[in-house]
Amino acid sequence: MHSALLRHGDCREVLPTLDAGSVALAVTSPPYNCGKDYGDGGDSLPWDDYWSFTREWLALLLPALVDGGRLAVNLPWWMGKKPRRDVPYAFKAAALEAGYLFLDKIIWIKGGEENLHVSGGFGGGGCGWGTYMSPSGPVIRCASEPILVFSKGGRGRKITSGEGRGACVRGDMTKEEFHAWTMDAWFVRGSADKSHPATFPVEIPKRLVKLYTFPGERVIDPFMGVGATGLACAAAGRAFIGVERDRGFFDEASRRIEDAGRQGSLFGAA
Ligand SMILES: C[S@@+](CC[C@H](N)C(=O)[O-])C[C@H]1O[C@@H](n2cnc3c(N)ncnc32)[C@H](O)[C@@H]1O
């Protein structure tokens, strides 16, 4: 059975309404603050304001996580024009300040190794290579993004009651999935979804959900976009909470997740 609770609004208003200790994992890709058109003009904040916003939602999310719950966040490497400012370091500092523990990092490489030499690059790498074939000013193009993983409290998760009680109970990954997904480089082709300017492919949240939660647990995406994390949860049998501020993206996510979970789903939108 798949359940989804979808909320249209600002996650900073929704997060405080969630039951404390009710969510095992947050998987999200927050706004990158790079001027994307999310319909509200809010993706171009001054650097300091962006980090105030980030600290705010991080702090509001923490109480909703179970002890040992995780936050997996997909970020850009940098923001702004040159000199660019590093994002993962600033994000890590904000998360530590908000009370999270840093666990791990994964590099999502947006394609297979065979694509790295394709002219024009892939996965957003584009052809902004600076001075073409000249050492005078080549630009390193972006074909990857970091995913940082944090936890609330301790490193491990315990099932404290019912079937599977114990400290180290198997989840629902295959041996091959576990071996591949515990490596810190993930080769996953970027999303080609045209309905939103900044989606990740469902494969990314699918891996995170299966790696960090047990079947039936609850996962949240406070910046749901058009619903990739919700689709991953529907496929993996996890309950989902999704929050999205833009009405159009919210409606699209609702439609997709409802379709995906239609068989035996318990669906609520508000
Ligand atoms: C990078 S996109 C996420 C895309 C998503 N991972 C997907 O694959 O569809 C960030 C999303 O956060 C939404 N957003 C921005 N600020 C928000 C806020 N304060 N509360 C909720 N959603 C917000 C934007 O409208 C945008 O859709």
Count all strands and give the number: 11
CATH class: Alpha Beta
Count of DSSP helices?
7
Termini gap: 20 Å
What can be said about this structure in brief?
The chain is an alpha/beta fold and 270 residues long. 27% of the residues lie in helices and 22% in strands. It has one domain: 3-Layer(aba) Sandwich (Rossmann fold).
What does this structure look like?
- The structure is a single chain.
- The strands form 2 sheets. A 9-stranded mixed β-sheet has the order 8-6-7-3-2-9-10-1-11. The chain has a two-stranded antiparallel ribbon with strand order 4-5.
- By secondary structure, it is an alpha/beta fold.
- It has one domain: Vaccinia Virus protein VP39 (Rossmann fold).
- The protein is built from 7 helices and 11 strands.
- The longest helix is centred in the N-terminal third of the chain and has 15 residues.
- S-adenosylmethionine binds next to helix 1 and strand 10.
- S-adenosylmethionine (SAM) binds next to helix 1 and strand 10.
Features:
270 residues, disordered C terminus, two-stranded antiparallel sheet, globular, Rossmann fold, alpha/beta, binds S-adenosylmethionine, nine-stranded mixed β-sheet, single chain
